[in-house]
């Protein structure tokens, strides 16, 4: 019988520094009231200078391995938009720091959908028999690419990392990952973009302005597409899993905005109390948002062993994706 991918460990890592809405309002033209009512965010974590995405990814991966009860891994995928360097990928360095030198390790660029994309890759490797234990890490430090003077992005994003271990098992086990769906639409490439620093607009280009280095987002456009795509893809995997809407114990949508999460749940007919959320304390942590929300839901008792879980995400590209799984008997670990 073909092996089934089974989630068997989860770890998280957050920077110590908390930045509240009032902290932001002290230097930007914004307010706690605006940020809370428009996004649901009260505070976020931010790295100190010198701490890189790879550091958070490494710590989250250590937690996931501890949670899984084994350091054995034969593949590592790191979903991130904020690698330690434009070149090389950060994943081999993280693997080496974990004592996993020699395994295949690569970065995956699907912006805020990166974790679901990584989970899909891990599932396929496990199903095909090409891997038996895969580390999937989602890690981002958007504080390193957002403009300190831009209230529209600075208020939303936070830094963090989450990681899971996916092992070969059977489809009836708790933790089994079922249907996965992915999609993209390149016509939306400008809605979320860092204009400069790639081959189309190198940093060395004479026309590159300092602003071109920063992350920008057309919020309203992204909002609309995020709701539509996340709801659609989650509905697709729900139906493929053979679950009714009432069967869904926990909907974990990308933590982009509390209003987006509410709108996705409303479209799907999932009650708000069945939604996991970590946005209030962490903001939008990009590729880390789903594993961080999962870990928070497990720690708070919101998630129980055997619960039917739907993950859904939307990100720059545009990219989106969803996955269905049952929740395993695991304790999230943070190092
Ligand atoms: O992770 C990838 C996916 N990302 C998302 O899904 C994010 C989706 N978008 C959103 O969550 C929302 O669009 C935002 C939270 C980014 C913005 O909320 P909005 O309600 O869509 O506001 P808006 O962009 O339409 O801006 C309305 C006003 C503007 O001022 P004017 O032009 O009307 O004078 C903005 O400049 O709100 C202003 N504004 C702010 N005001 C105070 C934007 N950010 C802030 C802020 N504080 N932090």
TrEMBL record:
It is found in: Cytoplasm. CDD domains: KAS_III. Residues 240-327 form the Beta-ketoacyl-[acyl-carrier-protein] synthase III C-terminal domain. Residues 107-186 form the Beta-ketoacyl-[acyl-carrier-protein] synthase III N-terminal domain. Pathway: Lipid metabolism; fatty acid biosynthesis. Its EC number is 2.3.1.180. Keywords: Acyltransferase, Cytoplasm, Fatty acid biosynthesis, Fatty acid metabolism, Lipid biosynthesis, Lipid metabolism, Multifunctional enzyme, Transferase. InterPro entries: ACP_syn_III_C (IPR013747), ACP_syn_III_N (IPR013751), FabH (IPR004655), Thiolase-like (IPR016039). It catalyses: malonyl-[ACP] + acetyl-CoA + H(+) = 3-oxobutanoyl-[ACP] + CO2 + CoA. Belongs to the thiolase-like superfamily. FabH family. HAMAP family: FabH. NCBIfam families: fabH, PRK09352.1. Catalyzes the condensation reaction of fatty acid synthesis by the addition to an acyl acceptor of two carbons from malonyl-ACP. Catalyzes the first condensation reaction which initiates fatty acid synthesis and may therefore play a role in governing the total rate of fatty acid production. Possesses both acetoacetyl-ACP synthase and acetyl transacylase activities. Its substrate specificity determines the biosynthesis of branched-chain and/or straight-chain of fatty acids. This is Beta-ketoacyl-[acyl-carrier-protein] synthase III. It comes from Streptomyces rubiginosohelvolus. The gene is fabH.
